[in-house]
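Quick entry, no commentary yet.
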Amino acid sequence: MGGNQRVASIELLRRNLNKASPRRLVRLLGPLSPRAFFGVIQSLNRPEALVRELRDEDFYYLTKALSEEEALQLLSLASTKQLQHCADLEFWKKDMLYSDGIAKWLDIFAQLPIDQVQDLLTTLDPELLVAMLHPFLTVKTRNADVDYVEESDTLPAYTLEDVFYVDFPAPSLEDSLKALLEALYEADTNYYFTVMESLACGLSSDFEEAALHFRRARLAEKGFPCFEEALEIYQDSGVRHILAASPVAPRDVESPQYDDPDAAPLAYPLKTIPATSLFRQCLDQLTDSQDRDRISSELAHLANKIIVADSLDPSLYEDLTKSLRKASGYINIALQELGDGEPAAATDLLINRHIETLFRYGFQSILSLRREAMTFVRKYEGGIENLGYPLATILRELFKKRPLFAANVRGESKPRDFQDREEIIYIRRLLDDSSLEQAWEDV
């Protein structure tokens, strides 16, 4: 194809993209990589329509996968609800407000279009707004009984209304904070006065507790459970027996419900599944988009449980993708075992079983391997340290509270979560007394 033809083809594609509805575009473009998706956004006449059609979780994943400059461009197109979801994940570490995260996002918010900032500030929970501003502002009020000239020397220089005077303990944030205060003042003066009065009175623990309560409620709608509920994914409740006895059966539990069932499907959970895995092969065989959408939503729900149970940080892209890779790896192992490696049988399992049930089956397979390894070590004179390399290294990782596969003994950079039944078979082969020495020689 010549240069002119290529340009014409690209222009035709761009026109067709601009004619499509935002929801159709989200479904068509969902499988693209974050960078490719961002490239399409930049080619649209009304990119904000497509961006705001994204589920909050997809939007957040996209911002984490892009560079800071690209993410800022994306954030400038976001809805208030999408920005609120970012704040829910970035402003907190566990159940405590995270000052460094808030400071970073105060700078980001100050760079967004003024109408977008005003919508956000007037929509945030007032308790959160006060709690997040408190570490970075010192607010004083005038004493009505004292002449201003006499009092002026004791008041900070910055004020918008000659009532509240503001000092900025963090000079690096001063310009951003001024921009945000001015945006709030112009958007809703009464609300501005309410917020400033609360800041002048000092932060009560009730503010942070209320903000945390509202945050938990929003995240629960996204599939983030409490810690005790999240730990259930690692409990042995006979799931191996149930699935082995009846590999294909009606759905065992209902799918998680999300806050907006009519929203565009989630795309990000399927992006980290290895192309070579049986799980991926099964997904590629699905002909019903509803099955694919349901699996993606269930996988997101499961990954969020893993984040909570494993004390991962959802604001870190590495932890976000780690939870998805762990979920897909354990599911892949379950599909390999229950479907005997056959894509057709495994696809039936994927359609008829809940994703979390398959995950728990895969986890129980790894626990079964760990029990075998512990029995082997107890019988082996000298204990684990005398097993030599690579078995001692492998078993140390396997015996951790959350078992890992010592992929570093096979050329990878570090241990990781199990991804394939072959890794279980490999360790079982090393545990075979009759071939132990030969196994070491073959590594």
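second:
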Amino acid sequence: MHPLVMKFGGTSVADAAAISRAVRIAAAAAAREPVVLVVSAMSGVTDELLQTCDLARSGNVDGVESRIRGVEARHGAVVGEIFRVQADDLLAHISSEFDEMRSVLRSVAVLRELTQRGADRVTAAGELMSSRIVAAALASVGTPATWLDARRVLITDDVHPVALPRLDETRTAAGREVLPVLEAGEVAVVGGFVGATADGITTTLGRGGSDLSASVLGAALHAREIQIWTDVDGMLTADPRLVDGAEVVPHLSFEEASELAYFGAKVLHPSTILPAVQDGIPVRILNTLRPDGAGSLITRHVTSGDGALTALACKRNITVVDVTSTRMLLAHGFLRRVFEVFEQHATSVDVVTTSEVSVSMTLDDDRRLGAIERDLRLIADVQVERGMAIVSAVGDNLRRDSTLAVRLIVALDGLPLRMVSQAASRRNLTVVLADRDVPAAMERLHQKFFAPARSAR
């Protein structure tokens, strides 16, 4: 059995109307083949729960109760809109979830201390509740469905709040929990973003966690395809907020999708499709508002098309750190010492360029920059420049056509480029420039490399 794994994001289950649309889409698919549904929390709920955790940590009991009542009322209203008859069992499960949440948060408010483990238990509630609602909604329209507790299906390590799935253990758990449901002809519905350790301790997978859940379950169940249902038509040739005429990329490789996600395309989180990549399972991005669209298909191999590039992506408001030392000249071990500083402060570097006596790096997380700068000054001179951005052009054709890199740089003539880097895979060319120049850079590149393709059609 090779089921279809369908993941519905927060905007796709944001309210009663959105859930009804998602249910129609899932029911139509379930009429054709076995389906596993992975469901995010309703849009905005996870952020609400995180803010509630902060209120509890500050001892604001009244604020905690007010927030919880608001989230509970939202879920109750959605249930009331979807179901024509009283859904007593469903409401009882949701009420029980909120009672457990209150218990955790009261303890936090008394102690004025919030552990990551406690925060995970609270934020997991969003997915646990939304997935229950979706499972019940499917059953109400005549599509047999079983809700499964994601904590019994997706097994992770114990790193809170960004746990990593353990594929072998998850494969065993999915075989035990999910396969019997599919074999019985029912849709298996689980919450995304949520897992548990082998000891049953609730964990969460961090940002993009629901996509990662879908990818891991797809790999564990040897899925035919993994579908990511969201509020856009697929991977686009550029951010439509910056470029007029951005279009859907119909087919791209896993490597291209990963590069685009890493460098700012918001449709996918960079790490989410890795399990699918490793197992060669196709991933398709689709729009719940336009379910008849073809979307974007991501596969291991793609036949090279006519387009020179696949798409553009950008990361804005990043920071450049320059580290300079004449001692670096012909000195071994200097780079190791520089990067050890970033490792010690758990901060990732995006783009790196080097010369004989300097190394420049970009960061999109500058929360620990003060400590990083202090430690770097022990070994070199340091300059920090904020208000910068990364623009990345991605496409497998960059490996095949040596003129593309030159044409890209020429297209940006007149815009001051702070750094230029081409990855070892030669699948992307990345430039760093002032954030204020991003709209012009994106528009120029899109006009140069994508507008001719549109006019040819």
